[in-house]
Specification:
The structure is a homodimer. By secondary structure, the first copy, chain A, is of the alpha/beta class. Chain A contains 12 helices and 8 strands.
């Protein structure tokens, strides 16, 4: 079953919430955990345990594990494995990108069955062109994994690059979205593709040459809900008909509830996401 | 001593060659090493041993260690530590990028004294704008580390994005180079800054709105020599007066010499780089 089909199933059964796993130093301290590989492992496993059966998707932020070197990566391996064993779809938020055999190596690391870092999907960056990612796109296709390519992001410094005009007249962000759409193999009508994009939940799509129609059949990973200012209730307004493709990604607004408040925070977010589907 | 000053010293004593450490599956096989964490560690340590005293700079490609998960990262930690202990400047070719506390975490991982993954510099990506990298730029400044921001790359799929025009009229690649130049703190006349860019050695600078003058005082990490088609003898022609700032990065053309031929291949490359300085 393709990643897109598994995602569609998760949407249907547990909804569109994606729970971030971001064990940064401040959160570890407020959870009473050590700022160490042990701490990030414990943090990650607690989030997985709370999310399992309540939400369908988790997104570990790789940087917070990498901070602790190989020991942090060993912790991440445990978190990834436990999340997948619990039936959660796991998106490694790694934002990797390169060319040739190097980008293939990233695909081998994150998207290969049996790899210690195996996830269901990963985030990638196409500063070197979407074609630079061919090696990881092919691997994702072969192993029924997913990819989310950074397209239009919310941070204010991003717009100058992402709204630049290519010589073919397209905005950089819009060209990435269109090119990703082209990589989604035609599937049964109504099915989600396995290749999606990352789009900030506080941007104005039109500023980037985008509209809801740009995302037909494509999953949209939208970070920025809660802490970064986007409200979940605005999803239909922000994304229009593409709202049904959105992974509503929330991290700090859930994680700041602390270890004891985690389940309630996830439930509240799940309900809020479901409510805006009407 | 700043990274730029250490780089200038390396240029003066051992020249401008940067030896890639790219233990991909094909090279491991041809070296008779297992495709495992043990293999990449052995490969990396052999390159470090051969480069020490002959070249000044090494560049491990992180993806090939990440392929082996936390065990591969433990191998990378050994390679980084041994390289730094041998007096080599180490550039972690990680091409990381993100925003806020996430990009800070990457800086903590790679550019913090005492971190298990400590390097002297790392490569980063600014698809979200150079300002998105503030967290890692500040850390590099504080700990006298370096950064190389991906600017204009050689792969054919890259040009459409990197030559796109921003609303301020600048090409995406040229704006990154100019903005990086702006981050190089004014230092003693003639000194190299600590913030550089990655520029492919087979591009035409003008296609990206660049000229040798764009790189005044800025180190240029130029991959693509040897295997990817650029010839070392062309460095002065390609980069003009900025040739003196170029890290001539060669991987496969050195590493394909195999374990036994490694020292001779490094010496030959060092001599070739020195020859084109006249």
């Amino acid at each position: 079953m393709s990643f897109g089909a598994r995602l569609e199933r998760a949407f249907a059964t547990t909804g569109q919430l994606c729970v971030g796993i971001d064990p940064h130093a401040g959160l570890l301290a407020s959870w009473g955990l050590p700022d160490s590989a042990v701490g990030v492992r414990d943090f990650g496993l607690q989030v997985v345990e709370a999310a399992a059966g309540r939400a369908g998707i988790v997104k570990p932020q790789v940087a917070f594990f990498e901070r602790h070197g190989s020991a942090g990566y060993a912790a991440l391996e445990d978190v990834l494995a436990m999340a997948r064993a619990a039936g959660l779809l796991v998106i490694a938020d790694a934002k990797r990108g390169d060319v040739g055999s190097t980008v293939e190596a990233y695909g081998e690391a994150w998207l290969t069955p049996g790899s210690p870092l195996e996830a269901d999907a990963m985030t990638v960056v196409a500063y070197q062109g979407l074609g630079s990612l061919d090696g990881v796109i092919e691997r994702a296709t072969r192993f029924e994994k997913g990819l989310f390519v950074l397209a239009a992001t919310s941070n204010p410094e991003a717009a100058a690059t992402q709204t630049a005009r290519r010589t073919d007249g397209r905005f950089v962000a819009a060209a990435i979205v269109a090119d990703v759409a082209g990589r989604n193999v035609a599937e049964a009508s109504g099915a989600l593709g396995s290749f999606g994009v990352v789009v900030g939940a506080t941007i104005a799509l039109a500023d980037f040459g985008l509209s809801p129609a740009s995302f037909t059949g494509m999953p949209i990973l939208a970070p920025g809900f809660g802490h970064q200012g986007a409200r979940i209730a605005q999803v239909p307004e922000l994304f229009g008909p593409a709202a049904q493709n959105v992974l509503v990604s929330a991290s700090r607004s859930i994680l700041s509830a602390g270890s004891e408040g985690l389940i309630a925070a996830i439930d509240a977010h799940v309900n809020e996401v479901a409510a805006c589907r009407g």
